[in-house]
Prior knowledge:
By secondary structure, the protein is mostly helical. It has helices at residues 8-38, 43-73.
Amino acid sequence: MWIAVADDSLRRQLRFSLFLQGFAALMMGGAAVVRLVAIGLDAITVVLLLACAGILAAAVFTRSRLTLLASDDTDPGGSPSE
Length: 82
């Protein structure tokens, strides 16, 4: 798989995206827990839990892209990964 060379702007955008995803997961998870304790398990609680899981999956993907970009920067060959 070919990956474009990342500049500082892309890394900043990905780090900010990771921050927002973490905050969103915290808010969705918190809302799901509060609703679970107050009302019990219902359809909206399940939706909140699924949304939290989806956000966490996106955060894991973003983190893996950041790690991959960081490892490409330390590659002495300078060639794109295939």
